[in-house]
Design goal:
The complex is a heterodimer of chains A (403) and B (507). Chain A contains 16 helices and 2 strands. Chain A is an all-alpha fold and 403 residues long. In chain A, helix 4 packs across helix 13 and helix 5 packs antiparallel against helix 13. The longest helix of chain A has 27 residues. About 2% of the residues of chain A have low confidence. The longest helix of chain B has 16 residues. Chain B is an alpha/beta fold. In chain B, the strands form 6 sheets. Chain B has a 6-stranded mixed sheet with strand order 6-9-10-3-11-12, with helices on both faces. In chain B, strands 18-21-22-15-23-24 form a 6-stranded mixed sheet, sandwiched between helices. In chain B, strands 2-1-4-5 form a 4-stranded antiparallel sheet, covered by helices on one side. The chains are: A mainly alpha (403), B alpha/beta (507). At the A-B interface, helix 11 and helix 12 of A face helix 10, helix 11, strand 20 and helix 13 of B.
Chain lengths: 403, 507
Amino acid sequence: MEDLKQKPSEVSRSKSLMDIMKSNISDYFMFIALIVIMIFFTITTNGVFISSRNISNLINQMGYIAVLAVGMTLIIVIRHIELSVGYLAGFLGAFAAIAMTFWGWPVYAVIPAVMIMGVLAGMITATPVAKLGVPAFVSTMALGLIFRGALLLVTMGTGTIVIKNDVFNAIGNGFIPDLPLGGILPGRHKLTLIIGLIGIIFSIFSAIKSRRTKLSYNFQVPSFSLFIAQLVLVSGLIGYVSWILSGYNGISWSLVILLLVVAVFQFITTKTPLGRHIYAVGGNPEAAELSGISVSKITYIVFAAMGMLSSLSGIMYASRLRSATTTAGLGFETDAIAAAFVGGVSAAGGVGTITGSIIGALVMMSLTSGMNLMNIDISVQYIVRGAVLVLAVVFDRITRRKN
Amino acid sequence: MDAPILEMKSITKEFPGVKALDNVTFSVRKGEVHCLVGENGAGKSTLMKVLSGVHPFGTYTGEIFVEGDIQKFNGIRDSEHAGIAIIYQELALIPELSVYENIFLGNEITNGLVVDSNESISQAVDILKKVGLDVNPMTKIKNLGVGKQQLVEIAKALKKEVKILILDEPTAALNENDSDNLLQLIRGLKEQGVTSILISHKLREVMEIADTITVLRDGKTVNTLDVQTDRVNEPVLIKHMVGRSIDNVFPKREKVNIGGEVLRLEDWCAFSYALGRDILKNVNINVRAGEIVGIAGLMGSGRTELAKSIFGNPDKYRLSGKVFINGQEQKFRNPHDAIKASMAYVTEDRKGNGLILIDDVKHNISLANLQEITAGGVINENEEILVANKYRSELNIKTPTIQQKVRNLSGGNQQKVSLGKWLFVKPGIMILDEPTRGIDVGAKFEIYTIMNSLVEQGMSIIMISSELPEILGMSDRIYVMSAGKIKGEMPIEEASQEGIMALAVDY
């Protein structure tokens, strides 16, 4: 590892911790706030909040909102809004239930079919926005009404449709299997720990590789001690989360889906030309168009991605309830929008990250979970969550103005 | 008629890096029509903004007297109170409201709590008579033509006691008939004792209506001419407007190496659906390799529209005519096609449609050519840093790091980022729209030097500029535009400021 260190003469190339903290305070703030909130609830609930069972539940409850928040982030980044996602999720969940229960479709056909329907729905929603400049607020609200009607229509005869497919129901309730290593670490989910370990090793190796490449280009890198501190922090975090999860049933299928969605979208937004184009369209659509980027094409792509994520959300929710209900999806869009804004997305466009919105979703879900454990009345819960949303947005506004 | 109703003494107004007004003195006699002329950027609008309180007291130095009393306007309300009304070139009417609602907007006649429509309408009828406009006061503004809207705007100003009426290029968007009506109205108001200050580029109409003409140039008063006693004609005015000596601020080109034709437009016309009129009429131009072609003209003459219509037509004008690039006819569906055909367009409004201000220097530079640094679908961010640093040092972009947000850079450095972005596309033909607007002298010189080295390497540059010295100092050949038409073409040897301006003000 010696070659990762810098020679003393190159110290000026390295950034100090203070510089990094100062320039990115608004990026880290919500993460710090999340930790504070979690510690607060851990104390007030005598540790119940941080228990394996509760964290595992929290993640499963968050899954179907978090995947929506990922898509909503991109929608808001390109200066639009999507109000139909909740009802679309509800309708597609019901469609999945009907296809399996009444038509006898196999689950492995239903899931891709529903996802394709989600993409198509997203493209239909995008058309008036991208082609005619209809405000997304109006066009998505209208589509939302249509999807709501469609949901009521398909569940009219039956009411709630109970899903009896175990594979489907595992998506929202099941956990990955464990390895048959009964003797070692009894009461712990071994595969979860192993995956955690692999995650740690992978993150260390990729960090080292990226630092090596940067040094080979002769670029500025954080100082060696800071680099080690970062590695320790990230490894500790992954290790701790896997340890907690291993204490209950391990990693849930919901978490697997969520992690996949985050990984794919994080990759697209940060590493690919498509991602750059999305942020450019959000930052300045006219400049983007003159730079050879088709604003309408980007609008279609983002709404289609949102539609696909809505279908996933609908599947996760129906699976979690083991049924399709007439009220499925109600208010999902509000939760997803709130998560995105708490996570630092700017309504002015061009600003907001996938990881930020996931942290935003975690903050909102932690508040719900913690207050539930403290037996706080639902009325107060709404007020607190609303206050946190306002505070987060105000804070974001102030720190951005300063920069 | 001799006492000055308005005197502005030693007015100096500075913006960061630019002295917009430099010790300007401006005096208007009671009851006259006083015209203010000068090139774009001469300081006419700034002077009127100082007068109307848009630039409040304290942000400029100097004194304003109205009828002998010193004035300290802190906003438009103060100047309105003193009897000064200003009508801007862009109309400030609400299209969805009726004529009478617009006239009384902000000063509604109320009946206790509610708006007294009947009283408003009957007063509106009287006011509209004053401007000779015969329309139903309940007509919505959007249903009136531009000429009538202009009259409503004046009516709105006249509802209060107006001593001085300022009109900023009132006839720019009007046809001949409407223009004549408006000038007639100004004469009529003069008879009623209203003093008018008129900003206009149309020298013919200035000659027709003015009692006195003040010429501004580069933020200074050049001359005040009495139309009755001084010998005033268009050539004299043009001479005053442009008659500066051209300092030697332009770098010499090492070698001029002009090759074959790379771009040709044939009978190029454009119709704007948004404006509802033709904005380009039968434009025929050509550009050769290694050449800087200057396109001169006043604002609104169609230069930017020409650039955009060629560059993939993002504003979706209805086009006719032909574009040839390197002898091949091209039909660009969007800017992407134009970029692929080796064109680049550095926009006039770098903040509005040139750069992503909230993003950093490196992302802005790479944006139009990401595929160059992408392998296997993934952007190589390290290569991107190299590219950004390359242009940072080549163009001498002064920024602490390439991670700096572009909005934190100075105008000159933003312009260089814009240039860097388009150089990374490696174009053959580059359109530069007002390449040095709002940037300091040092950065201007650097940009000129870069332009020279680019054409020496065989690139072709179309330079749109309102600054005549720049046009004359940099171009190999010049086209002059006015009202969407090419009014003339001249090789640099035959071009002069007077010659260009005479064509540019020819409507």
